[in-house]
Amino acid sequence: MGREFVDDFDLWADHYDNTVQGEDRQYQEVFKDYDIILDEVAGHTIGNVLEFGVGTGNLTEKLLRLGHKVYGVEPSKKMREKALEKLPDLPLHDGDFLEFPKPDGPIQSIVSSYAFHHLTDNEKKQGNREI
Fold this sequence. Notes:
It contains 6 helices and 4 strands, in the order H-H-H-E-H-E-H-E-E-H. The two termini are 15 Å apart. The longest helix has 10 residues, at 34-43. By secondary structure, the chain is α/β, with parallel strands linked by helices. It is 38% helix and 11% strand.
């Protein structure tokens, strides 16, 4: 449930940041304006943030720079490792939209980028109920 792509993301983790910066021609259109989109998401958050699909921590970095406390959820072990290389103090947990450890404090914003579309329609409904 919601984890069909974890093996793919484990394999992609070492190259993901290069991909989103346009170095992989196959994904150039998918990640067009990547930083602008992440800035837009980060700019609409308030307070403590629950982030799903942290990946390598690119959105997380922007949220932290804005002074937010971030509680991260990421199903890929390799992506979590990459994120923690950048952000060693980040509370980052194994989980996904459907099953995740509940935050230990209040949350004012819930964000995700480039992740929710991996769910089926039924999983999206279930994930929204969980959140």
